Structures are given as C-alpha cells and as structure tokens.
Amino acid sequence: MILPLADTPNPPGRPYVTWALIAINVAVYLFITLPASGRPVNLHDPLLPDYLRVIGAYGKVSAQEVYSNVSANDLLVFRYGFRPAEYAPLTLLSALFLHGGLFHLAGNMLFLYIFGDNVEFRFGRARFLVVYLLCGVIATVFFSLFALNSQAPLLGASGAIFGVLGCYFLWFPRNRVRCILFPLFMLPFFLPARLILGVYLVLDNILPFVATTQAGSGIAHGAHIGGFFGGLAIAWGHDRWYLFRRGKKPKVAKAGEMASLHRVCPAVAAGDMEGAADCYLHLERREDRLQIDAPDVLAVGEYLLEHDRLHDALSVFRRFISERQTDSSIDRAYLGAGKVMMRNPRYLTSAYHYFLSAYDLAQSEELAVEAKSCLRRIERQRES
User: Fold this and answer.
1) Closest Cα to residue 273, out of 255, 292, 295?
2) In this structure, which topology does domain 2-244 adopt according to CATH?
3) Which helix (H) or strand (E) holds 333?
4) Cross-sheet strand order for the sheet of 176-181
5) Does residue 149 come out as left (phi exceeding 0), alpha (psi in the -120 to 50 range) or beta?
6) Ordered DSSP codes for 63-104
7) pLDDT in tens, 151-163
8) CA 116/CA 131 separation, integer angstroms
9) What is the C-alpha separation between 277 and 312, in angstroms, rounded?
10) Domains of the chain, residue spans
11) 166: burial class by Cβ within 10 Å (0-12, 13-18, 19+)?
12) Which fold has domain 255-383?
C-alpha cells in the first residue's frame, strides 16, 4: 500500500478551513460516534422499528437481544448516514462528517491534511469550503445512482476529499508527494502528484468499481470516483470562467502601455515609471488598487525591485498576492516577492516559499525555470 506522508511545495499562509474541517470530523468522532458506540440503543426510539425492519430482524428478536446487540451509534448512522432508498436532503451533508471507525477517519484526514492546503489557497477560504461540501454532495449522488434501492448508510468524508484530489490533480502537476510503501518499504521516496493520484483513482477505485458491486466491496468506490471527477470539473470550470471574464491572458506591460495607471497618473503616459510607482503606492483603498490592471501593478513592482526600493517592491507584490489570489499572473508576484526576500539572508526561508509558489503556479516554462533556479541558489546557500 502506497501511503502518502506529505507533498511539496506548499503554499504560504495557514489553511484554516482545512484545519477546521479536520477538527470538526475528529470532534464528531470523539464526542459523538465513540460515546454512542458504547451506549446501548434506546428501546423507545421511534426509528428503531424501521432499523430492525431494514436489517430483517423486526418481530424476530426479543427486546433483550436488541438491547444487547444494537448500539446508539447504529441508529445514529441509520438516521444521519445517506441511504439512497430513503432520500433525505440533510443526510447529503451530515454523512460527510460521520466515520465508521478510527482507521476510516485517520485515512480521510491524512489525505485532507496533505492535499487540502494547496487547493484551499488556490480557491480562497470561502470558495474552498463551498467546493468541499459540493464535491461531497456530488460524490454521494453519483454513488446513489448505482445503488438506488440500498438501505446501507453511506458515511465518511472521502467523497468530498476525492473532490479536493480532483482539483489538486488539475492544478498542481509539478508537485511531488513523499510516500512509503506500507508496510514493506518504510524509507520515504517521492512520486509525482499526478502519478500517485492516478494510481489511487484507477487501481484503487475505478477497477474495483467495475469488478465489484457497491454492496460487495464494502467501500464506496462510486463516491470516490464521483467526487474526483466532480472536483476536476469544478477546477476546470473555475479556470475557464476566470479566463472568460478576463477576455485574454495578461501580458507584460510597458510603461507607455499602462492605460489603467494613466487614468490616475498622467505622468505614466510619458513613460515616468517613478511617477507611476509613487502614484500606485499612494492608493490607500483596496477598491482603488483593484482598478489598476494586473500587468501594470506587476510592472510597478518589478521597476521598484530593479531600482532597489525593496520595501516598496515587497509591498506591491504582497498586496497583489493578497488582493488578486485568482489572477493568472500571480506567479509573477510570487517570483518578485521571492527576489526581494532573497536580498536579505535572514529571510531566505520566506523567499524559498515564495519561489515554491511561483514554480507551482507558473504559467510559462520561462518563469518555472527562473523560479527553480532561485530555489537551487537558496539550497546551495544553505549547504555552504
């Protein structure tokens, strides 16, 4: 079994939504599932007759046998897990936070921890949460299409997490995943992210899905497949919609072409980059800064860097990263910020993370090569 341990590179910042989702899933297991598993069923629960009927035991067993063999968690899963034969909209979401056991929970949370941060950073926190839940719903619906009459509850976050993996597969082709071959080969080794995700999808899910029935496998392969392709489609659509709204890809602006800065700074028309830089730096409102076209902002930052106004250059690049997370030219902002930070030996670690992000998000081979070259320079400096 190929077990992932970590991925590289990782984005800057903290993936608060990913951490919150992990915390919620763990809390539900520790404070709801585990206590309910050790508590006998309430014989007066109105759902108990339906549960006994579904498992074929209604009228055939005594109350004592039911009390001894059915736990409160059995009814909890029956109530809040998704059962295709008894469709309930609430369970499309509630099922995502229930797990059948410790290993089920640990495996799902490991994958979310490893792969969630990059996808959260690319979407932004609010959109990432929406996409996570939406992928979970898509996965559950896809699963139900092949088990319409099933009363077996579907539960677990794996459908939503496979949606995250689908986004990751499309967006981070250059990333690598540190793995072990458990339990045969425990020394870590690296594999390309797309290779290992492809193995999980095809060998661990598509082939078993084709070869077995949903009920016979014991694993909801259909939910994994539906979630993965749902996430893949959402990421693809996100990129297409963004490019559609922009109309065309950004280009590197020349001073005389800064039409958007020209509107707020007439000196730009004469090629006055110093005036353009001062004009942009004095825009105090975020709304005003967002009126400036992305290539113009990057040209200002690169001008400031070239003329050793490092503090101002870093301010421009960081504002760009903070305010324009979905802009396709954000790779240039990360590269510029890394170059600024690399000028100071104390900030090599920060520079390294900026270059990792630039390399990961590179829209051109030239930028990827430059970011990789900067990464190697920092690594050599650390070794010396």
Assistant:
1) 255
2) Rhomboid-like fold (1.20.1540)
3) helix 330-342
4) 2-8, 176-181, 185-192
5) alpha
6) HHHHHHH-BHHHHHHHHHSB-GGG--TTHHHHGGG--SSHHH
7) 889 999 999 999 9
8) 11
9) 9
10) 2-244, 255-383
11) buried
12) 1.25.40
Q: Which of 253, 255, 283 is nearest to 267 (CA)?
A: 255
Instruction: Tally DSSP H helices, then E strands, for the chain.
Output: 21, 3
Taking residue 76's Cβ as centre, other Cβ atoms within 10 Å add up to 21
Asked if residue 292 lies in contact with residue 260, where contact means CB atoms within 8 angstroms, the answer is yes
Question: Are 85 and 50 within 8 A, CB to CB?
Answer: no
pTM, full prediction: 0.67
Beta bridge partners of 3: 180
- Give the tens place of pLDDT for each residue, 61-73: 666 777 777 889 9
Per the omega criterion (within 30 degrees of 0), is the bond before 15 cis?
A: no
Interatomic CA distance for residues 369 and 16, integer angstroms? 31
In this structure, which long-range contacts are made by residues 254-260, counting pairs with CB atoms below 8 Å and at least 24 apart in sequence?
Answer: 254/299, 255/299, 258/293, 258/296, 258/299, 259/293, 260/291, 260/292, 260/293, 260/296
And the tokens for 211?
Answer: 């070869």
d(CA 92, CA 292): 43
**94 near 79, Cβ under 8 Å?**
no
